[in-house]
Amino acid sequence: MRRNSKSSLSRPHRKRRGGWRWLLALAVFATVAWFWWRHEHPTKVIRAPTKAVAPRLRPFIVAPESPAGFPRPVRDVFEAQVALARRAISPGSIDAALGSQTRRAISVYQETQHLLVTGALNADTRARLMLNAPLVTTYVVTTNDLARLQPLGKTWLAKSQQTALEYETELELVAEKSHSHPELIRRLNLNVNWSNITAGTVLQVPDVDYPAASNKAAFAVIHLADKFLEVFDTETNLLAHFPCSIAANVEKRPVGELHVAVVAPNPNYTFDPELFPESPEARHLDQKLILPPGPNNPVGVAWIGLDKTGYGIHGTPAPEQVGRTESHGCFRLANWDAEYLSQLVWVGMPVLVEP
Fold it and tell me: Cys-Cys crosslink for 219: which of 59, 283, 327, 350, Cβ 3.0 to 4.6 Å?
């Protein structure tokens, strides 16, 4: 009886164990199948569209200083840019950044001071480069400023029909007057609504003026490889250094001695369609156009014609692009540099163009 009872109880126990194994195997199979299906049919996630947010401008703060605290050595890149610009050694548009044009201006200053030429704002250079007045000044927006502003035509024909190619915005006007990049002006004046600025608005701007052009230069040198122009007196002392754009086409870069043929402040501009084959509009124009003067004229506020037909030194509507973009053949300067150069040159003055 015991044997039969034991035997009868053991069989159902083995069946239950076998059933659990099948259930476990089925569960594993179902899990694997579910993961395979999710891999082959991923769930589509619908995200709400995000709106692009313009990066916030970082404020650029210049602590007020008493004139009694000057002269003193420069402390940083912005101060060096202002000090160099006051010596007519242009670092390009003042932007408080140590870019290639600022390094070149520092190198030029180091050379004039017989310092080791590194292009770096090192301790020796900071100690020698002095500031004689506070870095920034106030500029009050005037009704005359606002009266000058006008939209710029989008085509050559539209520009030729304007009364002047003036500044489009007060920001553009103030930036050029202070030899500065527009972004730096905005950073100095974060609370200003530039799209609705009014007369009487007080702005903070770099205080930059070139030395008075009391004497004429003896000659100028244009360095094609390094994209800068310099003018010297009869004793070969440096009078000014400017970044310069050159021709995009190597064949249009004249090398050798040229001479100033004409000096024209605030010039108009003759647009010849044949010289702009890349322009779709030019290909459909059958006549030359005369564009009126103004800072947004293609040659800016000054034209210094050379004795090689079609060549000259001139300003530009986009001063922050000087030395970074290339021209059709002429030598392009920031408007404030072209205007200052026009006071230094004279008809017949040699201009040496070096490779």
Answer: 350
Q: Is 332 exposed, middle or buried (0-12, 13-18, 19+ CB in 10 A)?
A: buried
Do the bridges between strand 312-314 and strand 269-271 make them parallel or antiparallel, or are there none, so unpaired? unpaired
Mean pLDDT lowest for which of 69-73, 214-218, 269-273, 277-281? 277-281
Check residue 249 and give its pLDDT: 85
Domain limits, CATH 2.40.440.10, in the chain = 219-266+301-354
Topology at the third CATH level for domain 219-266+301-354: L,D-transpeptidase catalytic domain-like (2.40.440)
What CATH topology corresponds to 70-134? Muramoyl-pentapeptide Carboxypeptidase; domain 1 (1.10.101)
Q: If you average pLDDT over residues 3-32, what whole number do you get? A: 52
Does position 288 have pLDDT exceeding 50, yes or no?
Answer: yes
Q: Which two tokens stand for residue 77?
A: 């890149």
Residues of the chain within CATH 1.10.101 domain(s) are 70-134
Question: Average pLDDT, whole number, for the chain?
Answer: 89
Amino acid at 77: V
pLDDT of residue 113 exceeding 50: yes
**Residue-wise burial string across 271-297, b where 16 or more C-beta atoms lie within 10 A, e elsewhere:** bebeeeeeeeebeebeeebebbbbbbb
The position carrying tokens 């927006």 is: 141
d(CA 259, CA 245): 19
Q: Compute the half-sphere exposure of residue 109: CA atoms within 13 Å on the CB side of its CA.
A: 29
251/247 Cα distance (integer angstroms) = 8
- Dig out the tokens for 273 from the structure: 């369609």
- Give the CA distances from residue 288 to residues 138, 164, 291, 310, in Å, rounded to whole numbers and listed in that order: 43, 18, 10, 15
Do 217 and 260 contact (CB within 8 A), yes or no? Answer: no
